[in-house]
């Protein structure tokens, strides 16, 4: 059973991690966009961390609260997208954790991001981390892997996918305006997505 406390701990760690990566993420976004991605993510998570989640009846509700907060506080294109991810995952996260249930929930979240932002695989966005992480989870589910090892595989796939965005040409968001100079640079939203998945993964236990 996922707990509200686990969501709070994840939020604390995300805030701490983003605080330490503000400059790096702003620098990447400075090359590809307008240089504010690190500031946006840190502001959003710092605001979400100030939510009082103690009244939430369960982890699903806590995730939805965080999602709504991110939509309103991250700002930029990424706020509604990370917010949608959390809202959808919160709406579908299984009570009893199973690999199939976790994969289905992340699938819903990713579908929400893609519906909202219209990015597809290869556009050099956060979607290019979400989809490979999902592919890994679903492939592990098909071969009957256990939840913990599948989660570890998925966050490794997310890190690899983050690095692979460097070779891509940007087709969505602000960075599409600088598509020629985008090759060779990792997408900042992809970096953030891999960080969020890794901090979350350590708290998922059967
Ligand atoms: P803004 O571009 O408004 O300044 P941010 O800098 O916070 O917003 O976020 C930029 C990141 O958002 C990108 O690196 C990319 O991963 C993600 N992003 C932008 N537009 C889209 C989109 N349409 N679909 C998916 N992800 C997107
Ligand atoms: Mg930006
Ligand atoms: Mg901006």
UniProtKB/TrEMBL annotation:
Annotated ranges, domain DhaL: 5-202
A Pfam family annotated for this UniProt entry: Dak2
Gene3D superfamilies: 1.25.40.340
Top-rank lineage group of the source organism: Bacteria
The keyword Secreted is assigned to this record: no
GO molecular function: kinase activity
Alphabetized UniProt keyword annotations: Kinase, Transferase
PROSITE patterns per the UniProt record, alphabetical: DHAL
UniProt-recorded name of the protein: Dihydroxyacetone kinase subunit DhaL
Natural source organism: Tessaracoccus lacteus
Gene name tied to this protein: dhaL
């Amino acid at each position: 059973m996922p707990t509200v406390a686990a969501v709070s701990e994840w939020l604390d760690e995300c805030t701490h991690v983003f605080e330490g990566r503000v400059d790096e993420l702003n620098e990447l976004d400075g090359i590809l966009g307008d240089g504010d991605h690190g500031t946006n993510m840190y502001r959003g998570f710092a605001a979400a961390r100030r939510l009082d989640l103690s009244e939430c009846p369960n982890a699903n509700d806590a995730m939805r609260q965080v999602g709504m907060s991110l939509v309103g506080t991250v700002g930029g294109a990424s706020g509604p997208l990370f917010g949608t991810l959390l809202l959808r995952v919160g709406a579908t996260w299984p009570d009893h954790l199973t690999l199939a249930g976790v994969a289905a929930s992340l699938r819903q979240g990713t579908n929400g991001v893609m519906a909202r932002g219209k990015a597809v695989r290869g556009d050099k966005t956060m979607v290019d981390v979400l989809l490979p992480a999902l592919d890994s989870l679903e492939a592990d589910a098909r071969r009957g892997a256990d939840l913990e090892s599948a989660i570890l595989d998925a966050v490794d796939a997310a890190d690899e996918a983050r690095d692979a965005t460097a070779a891509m040409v940007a087709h969505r968001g602000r960075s599409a305006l600088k598509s020629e100079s985008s090759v060779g640079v990792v997408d900042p939203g992809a970096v953030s997505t891999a960080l969020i998945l890794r901090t979350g993964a350590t708290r998922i236990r059967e």
